[in-house]
Amino acid sequence: MDHITALVELLSEDRVSTNETTLRNHGKDESHHTEALPHAVVFPKSTEEVSGINKIASQYEVPVIPFGLGSSLEGHVIPYQGGITVDFSLMNQIIEIRENDFLVKVQPGITRTQLNKALKQYGLFFPVDPGADATIGGMIATNASGTTSVRYGVMSDQVRNLEVVLADGNIIQTGSLAVKSSSGYHLNSLFVGSEGTLGLFTEITLQVYGIPEYTTAARAVFPTVSQAVDAVVKILQAGIPIARCELVDSYSMKQVNHHSKTNYLEAPTLFVEFHGNEAGLAQDVEFTQEIVYDLGCQEIIFENDSKAAYQLWEARHNLAYAFIHGASGKKLLVTDVCLPISELAGAINNARKTLEEFALVGGIVGHVGDGNFHVLLMVDKNDPKEMELTEKFTEHLVKYAIARGGTCTGEHGVGVGKKKYQRLEHGAAYDVMITIKKALDPKCILNPDKIIDKY
């Protein structure tokens, strides 16, 4: 018996696919990285079935790669060693909503928008918004964040407990329902961001929040990136409860106008959103206006109308598509780094200067409230010289960030694209990560060649 036959016996033939189209759909993500096909794609419905899959994989020593929607950006789900891709689309249920505890327990295949639709009737919402309608399991695997992280934190801040199936099929719980704990090692933090290299998530308990009584959005335009970032620092220092704070550079604003048919000023722009009660936010809005005008803001427009506010954030979220449609024949390559906020303006200005030196087409956007920014590059994958310059640019960006106390990725994750920078960033701590990986996955079957080289 081979591992495919064993999987069919476990799951039934209709949930084990070796169809070429299915394999191809699971051999890529949204990144520019080279595609590769798994041997089979399986569709489990329960924790016990995932455990059985891992036991088969361990027995036959074949790789196991978890798959949500394939929206990752660093090749996380690409099965370069073949093996079994575990598609969690049939494990997409809400198991329990504990509204009085502000908790929800879900399966990994549920998406962010599906979850929020169900929570709304309870007056609750899940805040982490990476832009894509990713699965909760995938968002935890990469420790995703997004536009609301400045107020609510990233995925690691939301996780109370994970049910994890280990490489040998054993099932563990990493936390509890309690708000805090001083008991034992903090396994939640170990598995969040592990990208499927330490275990497969089958149940997830998350913190959720009350829907804000009132929200208002604003667009503030500045002459320079430095002034925009300075304004963010001052707003945060003032204790103003901003829920979103996004920087879009002037080049990207041109793409916004072209794609979304808007007529925004084409200069460095902050997209800001406030959550709270109406009376309190009126004061915050007034204080924010004073701060930004003191720092050279050219104009700040508040959008209290829900339709106008939606258009504002829709334009920001659709920026990647704006670049794609504006550069026919080229592929979007998105990379991100994160730095201390005091280093952010210098990093963004340096990135823009380097783009111009390399004659690369790209825009810069960032979750500036937490020091994270992205460069959106449009590249011709068939042009070796352009791809070489793109690689040099990414390396420059990463090394600049790490040298200033930052990280090679704030939210996209490591995958295969940022793996080569792990030693540079973590030093001797990287050896500790390798030790942990070998202890939990001695046969190296869980998403091999991601974060850590196969051993």
UniProtKB/TrEMBL annotation:
Annotated EC: 1.1.2.4
What Pfam families does the database record attribute to this sequence?
FAD-oxidase_C (PF02913), FAD_binding_4 (PF01565)
- Domain FAD-binding PCMH-type, chain residue ranges per copy: 34-211
* This protein's UniProt keywords: FAD, Flavoprotein, Oxidoreductase, Transit peptide
The yes or no answer to whether the keyword Membrane is present is: no
For the keyword RNA-binding, the answer is: no
Swiss-Prot/TrEMBL cofactor(s): FAD
InterPro entries per the UniProt record, alphabetical: FAD-bd_oxidored_4_C, FAD-bd_PCMH, FAD-bd_PCMH-like_sf, FAD-bd_PCMH_sub2, FAD-linked_Oxase-like_C, Oxid_FAD_bind_N, Vanillyl_alc_oxidase_C-sub2
Under which main EC class is this enzyme filed?
oxidoreductase
The record's PROSITE patterns line, in alphabetical order, gives: FAD_PCMH (PS51387)
Known PANTHER family for this protein? Answer: D-LACTATE DEHYDROGENASE, D-LACTATE DEHYDROGENASE, MITOCHONDRIAL-RELATED
Concerning its family, UniProt says: Belongs to the FAD-binding oxidoreductase/transferase type 4 family.
Q: What is this protein called?
A: D-lactate dehydrogenase (cytochrome)
Q: Which organism is it from?
A: Alkalihalobacterium chitinilyticum
Q: What is the lineage of its organism?
A: Bacteria, Bacillati, Bacillota, Bacilli, Bacillales
